[in-house]
Amino acid sequence: MEHRAASLRLPVPAQDVLLALFITVMQVQGTIVRNVGEVVQRPLTDLGNLGYVLLIVSGVVVAVRRRWPVPVFVTAALASLVYFGLDFPDGPGWLALFIALYTVAAYGDGRRSLVIAGVGTSVLAIGWLVAAADIEPRAAIGWVFFRIGASVMSAALGESVRSRQVIAAEAQERAELAERTREEEARARADAERLRIAREVHDTVAHAIAIINVQSGVTAHVLDKRPEVAREALRAIEQTSSRALREMRAILGVLRDDDGDDDGRAPYPGLGQIDELAAKAREAGLDIKLEETSPAVPLPSAVGSAAYRIVQESITNVVRHVGPTRVTVVLNPGIDVLEIRVTDEGRRAAPGHDSADPPLPARHPTSSGSSAKPGRGIVGMRERCQLLGGELDAGPIPGGGFEVKARLPLAPTGSRL
After folding, report:
1. How many CA atoms lie within 13 A of 341 on its CB side?
2. Residues 278 and 413 in one domain
3. What is the DSSP pairing of strand 287-292 with strand 326-333?
4. Digit-coded pLDDT (tens) for 80-116
5. Best CA proximity match to 289, nearest among 232, 249, 245, 345
6. Which domain holds residue 121?
7. Is residue 231 assigned to a domain?
């Protein structure tokens, strides 16, 4: 129904043409009818039908009022001043002028259009009052004040319409901005969730694959000579892969919440699983020394989970890039910050290596001596710290080895991605 009504509506230029024809006919016909049987000082046919010309010109220019509002108003105003200044008969010859005044105010820019309308109305008022100085009877001067009042009302009505259009446009712009903001926030939340899942998957898979790689190498080496050691290595592979699957299920469970059943999901790991993490690292050949201080206050789950992932990724890097060595893990929870330090002694000398020689450097992803392509491990750890308002430093230490230091505030202040 609305589409049918819109299709029946005339184009704007056609509407203005019809309005101009109507105004022209009303001005000419209305003036003739109003003065039938009356003696007028100057008939419309005087001065070469100048009265008719002025009424027609002021009415016809309304057809282009939207395109040239100020020239149309100036034309209608001059026609009115000349018409009443030459004492042509009174009548509805001011209709086009009121339409032009309304258009200037409605389609203008506010301040400038009001100045034009105000100055024009003042000039018209003065011209009309001067022309009516000797009008008889004196009561007829009321029509002059009517024209002045109607001019002011036309400008005021146009300004009211313009103000409402401006308010509506601003409201529409605010609504569109709010909609864009909601869409950007939704995309930001989706990106943050995707980044979080990517970090969790990376940490879980990288650690499990590193442990499984080491244990499978041990199995292949001792399978024939020491089957009991191979059996333990295979058991470690089974346990590591099973735990990785549980963690992956917990991580990816947020992506499919159709039935809302969380019973089968394992909780995110925290500091309570650090001992188990250290035990798995020892099975992979690391000499882990864990120094853990009891927290003075309960740790937020986000901080505990981030701390676990940082320690896990640090140990994974040692397993992948260094091999069997001594690793010291220090967890020092204070009143307002949790300090984490993971230090390894670097690659141990191979059999037959002179003990007087310096130890071989560790091949960490960010070390200059590494030939491997840098990975995402340290970048992911730093992102975890930044999300909680903390900081992380990682780099080689004098004498060989590598150290990761992190500080996580217990009241996170970082911005969420």
Report:
1. 11
2. yes
3. parallel
4. 899 888 888 888 888 999 999 999 999 888 788 888 8
5. 345
6. 2-180
7. no
